[in-house]
Automatic annotation (TrEMBL):
Gene: AKR1D1
InterPro entries hit by this protein: AKR, AKR1D1, Aldo/ket_reductase_CS, NAD(P)_OxRdtase_dom_sf, NADP_OxRdtase_dom
Database matches in PROSITE patterns: ALDOKETO_REDUCTASE_1 (PS00798), ALDOKETO_REDUCTASE_2 (PS00062), ALDOKETO_REDUCTASE_3 (PS00063)
Species whose genome carries this gene: Sphenodon punctatus
Protein name per UniProt: Aldo-keto reductase family 1 member D1
Gene3D superfamilies for the chain: NADP-dependent oxidoreductase domain (3.20.20.100)
One Pfam family linked to the record: Aldo_ket_red
């Protein structure tokens, strides 16, 4: 498929399509000045991005919605050009909470629908006001997880027109199979958003998803922000990799651009986060060069099975997804 800056959508299994690069919008809210996210989304849309990845728990969905609506009002884009992905958080898995939670997101965004809504993690937490519920001893308060029931509630949101496509995130093969084999399945997940980059190429999960028409959306495609709250910072930094940098020199591209190009060339959608105007623009400049088969193989060989986002604090959850091989 010949992807260009102007036309870089890939088909999804439900007949819709997804732009292969999107702007990630997670940044520590305590360290990010108000308005930074909105400004970054405006810059991204002006630079050619049509896909924005967000979530209620990023605490900046209001800014994402504001920027999208401004760009529509300006006439820069139409609503149907934009692809917004929102996420259902762990405390909102009970089926009766799914639609009200999505409606809350639509209300924050001030949009009529989202393009993709995904179950953010396969681990349910105790419903309630607290996003990260813990008891008086600091122990995480989990909740019975019934992924099939949550999925059925998502299917109903699609049928009601609140969301165009539905998918999952951080699901392993067993959890995907649970949905795919659910009796009476109405809509298959179109995508699985997972960590994926040259140090964690996810070959087996990629292959499984390909066989089942599930698009992989790669989070942390640049190797994360290396924020210690979430990231195993003892792992080597992806963008310092000599192979990525040497290949970059040949094309006058950065290691980041090479890493992103590698992913889209293997059919993986990327959602790099940047709130810096130069890097937002830089990350979109990946449609004017092409890696050779030899270079693709060289980059594939960098795989070290490094998962930066391990979420080990929840590893005792019955549905913690990363105990399985894939
Ligand atoms: N579903 C999930 O569980 C999940 C988990 C993690 C992330 N996500 C989503 O995926 C998005 C991306 O993942 P991520 O934020 O973990 O990591 P990432 O996109 O791999 O990396 C972001 C970091 O790289 C820096 N950066 C961006 N472009 C760069 C460039 N060209 N050169 C050098 N550094 C660059 C950014 O800093 P500046 O901002 O200063 O440029 C930021 O510190 C998130 O924002 C979020 O939307 C989803």
């Amino acid at each position: 498929m010949n992807l260009t800056a102007e036309n870089h959508r890939m088909p999804l299994s439900d007949g819709n399509s997804i732009p292969v690069i999107g702007l990630g919008t997670y940044a520590d809210p305590k360290k990010t000045p108000k308005g930074t996210c909105a400004e970054s989304v405006r810059i991204a849309i002006d630079a050619g991005y049509r896909h924005i990845d967000g979530a209620f728990v990023y605490y900046n969905e209001n800014e994402v919605g504001q920027a999208i609506r401004e760009k529509i009002a300006e006439g820069k884009v139409k609503r149907e050009d934009i692809f917004y992905c929102g996420k259902l958080w762990n405390t909102c898995h009970p089926p009766e909470l799914v639609r009200p939670t999505l409606e809350k997101t639509l209300n924050i965004l001030q949009l009529d629908y989202v393009d993709l809504y995904i179950i953010e993690l396969p681990m349910a937490f105790k419903p309630g006001e607290a996003i990260y519920p813990r008891d008086e001893n600091g122990k995480w308060m989990y909740h019975e997880t019934d992924l099939c029931a949550t999925w059925e509630a998502l299917e109903a949101c699609k049928d009601a027109g609140l969301v165009k496509s539905i998918g999952v995130s951080n699901f392993n093969r067993r959890q995907l199979e649970m949905i795919l084999n659910k009796p009476g399945l109405k809509h298959k997940p179109v995508s699985n958003q997972i960590e994926c980059h040259p140090y964690f190429t996810q070959l087996k999960l990629l292959e499984f998803c390909r066989e089942h028409g599930i698009t992989i959306v790669a989070y942390s495609p640049l190797g994360t922000s290396r924020d210690e709250t979430w990231v195993n910072v003892s792992s080597p930094a992806l963008l310092k990799d000599p192979v990525l940098n040497t290949i970059g020199e040949k094309y006058k591209k950065t290691a980041a651009q090479v890493a992103l190009r590698f992913s889209i060339q293997r059919g993986v959608t990327v959602i790099p986060k940047s709130f810096s105007p130069e890097r937002i623009r830089e990350n979109f400049q990946i449609f004017d060069f092409c890696l050779t088969d030899k270079e693709m193989k060289e980059i594939e060989a960098l795989n070290k099975n490094i998962r930066y986002v391990e979420m080990l604090m929840w590893s005792d959850h019955p549905e913690y997804p990363f105990h399985d091989e894939y």
